[in-house]
Amino acid sequence: MANGLVIAANASLGDSIFLIVTFILLMWLVKHFAWGPVTKMMDKRAQKISDDLDGAAESRSKAEQMAAQRQSELKNSKSEAIQIVNTAKENGEKSRQEIVTAAQTEAAQLKSKAKVEAEQVKTDALNGAREDVGQIAVNIAEALIKKDLNADDQKELIDAYIKGLTNADETR
User: Fold this and answer.
1) Structural domain boundaries in the chain
2) 142 close to 149: Cβ distance less than 8 angstroms
């Protein structure tokens, strides 16, 4: 039996050495042919994930900046709209005031012109009435003395009347 143990120990030692050598050879083959490509693949995958995370963070940062910019532009648009409305109101008020002032000025000018025209019509009417009264007086005088009076005759008649009045005053 001791012999069998030695053989079994020899066989066991030979098997162990074979297994160790095979294991080392297998580890070397795995490291050389499989571990390197798998490690490279895992490194690439880790790098891609890292780049994707960095890209996502950068995209989120850009999105936040764009949202802030849009918000700012919206506020500016609101203030510009308010300013445009206020400017339009001011311009409308100025236009209204200018129209009212122009209308008042035009009304005053028309009133003044109408007043001047009324005075002219009044003056023309009075002059016409004087001429008509003078003509009526001449017609009456002609009828009384049955003679046509011209301007010279009228002057003589007036002078004679004045002279008669002067003589009448002297005799008193």
Assistant:
1) 2-171
2) yes
Give the helix, strand, coil percentages of the chain, each rounded to 5.
95, 0, 5
Rounded-to-integer distance, Cα 115 and Cα 108, Å = 10
| Residue keyed to tokens 């016409």 | 128
User: Over the Cα atoms of the chain, what is R_g?
Assistant: 66
C-alpha 78/C-alpha 84 separation (Å) is 10
Give the span between the Cα atoms of 144 and 161, in whole angstroms.
Answer: 15
Q: How far apart are CA 167 and CA 119, in angstroms?
A: 42
Contact yes or no for 138/149 (Cβ under 8 A): yes
Q: DSSP assignment, residue 147?
A: S
Contact 108, 114 (CB under 8 A): no
| Pairwise CA distance, residues 77 & 70, whole Å | 10
Tokens 């009133």 belong to 111
- What pLDDT, in 10s, does the model give residues 64-118? 999 999 988 888 888 888 888 889 889 888 988 989 898 889 888 988 888 888 8
* pTM over 0.70, yes/no: no
